[in-house]
Automatic annotation (TrEMBL):
TM segment ranges: none
InterPro entries according to UniProt: HTH_LacI, LacI/GalR-like_sensor, Lambda_DNA-bd_dom_sf, Peripla_BP_I
Protein name: Transcriptional regulator
Repressor in keyword set: yes
Amino acid sequence: MKRASIKDIARIAGVSVATVSYVLNKKEGSRISEATRKKICEIAETINYTPNKIAKSLKTNRSKLLGLILADISNDFYSAIARCIEDEAMKLGYTLLIGSSDEDPEKFKKLTELFSEQQVDGMIVAPVVNSDDAINRLIKEKYPIVTIDRYLKNINIPGVMIDNTRISESVGNYLAGKNFEEAIYVGYDTQLPHLLERQEGFEKGITPEISCKKVLVGLNNIAEEVFSGLESNIDLSKKTALYFSTNKLGTAGLRYFLKSNIKVPEDVSIIAFDETEAYHLFPTEISFVQQPLTEMAKEAVRLMDSQINNYSDNGKKVVFPARLITKRSVRKK
């Protein structure tokens, strides 16, 4: 017979997995009514719920588990920062459970529920569009949570990110100083604030003398839409520079240039966000924006550990600078 789980109790009681976890682990500080607590305990007894041995043996009601929800674990940026976070978490005695939401708010929600069922002490998350409800539920139940790389505009919780506006404005300024006739921003058609900041910063950094275009694509057919957008917007008779706002977009752009026999930097100049192995396969060294992954990971784990132990740093956001690493993909004046 299948052993009863926290998820079973949550389903019967009509509450979230996190609520059940808080009640059964006797955690203080959550806004859960006495009636709900009593109902959950009665259901647990009725269906013969037994906590797993590890959780049962903990005297502090802490699992020393952290949940990490990334937008896309296959992305070099997220896999690299996951490794950094895991290393930092292990130094403090935590074990990491990792999930990938694939930019899907429903999958994001299910991962938060799964991690709650596993009784993680807190979660480090990269929010996706329309993940507000899932995060607000965790906040309501006083669940320790820290955002990494991204944030949501109307939710005030601790987070770690880079100054996307400033670095993108610096990229725009750098290209403006090279006397280009056109600049093309390649980004996503999205409402995620950190990506909107990259677009706004870049446009701010480009001088009025330079024609500035945008190629915005969806998340489902990235390569196909990048190919189509570049085909429609690149005019090889003009001195053109392109800024790819993520490494996936940059990789798709490089594939288009190879397929179309467009030479970098002779025909077009490019700068891409984040370093990735794909850039090293291209004939020309690619200029890119470098994020301080180790520092971001350390701060994310520190903020999480602080919340778990002291419930401090609530709402604190830490913003790191990023660096433009110039290579041979941008032509000289």
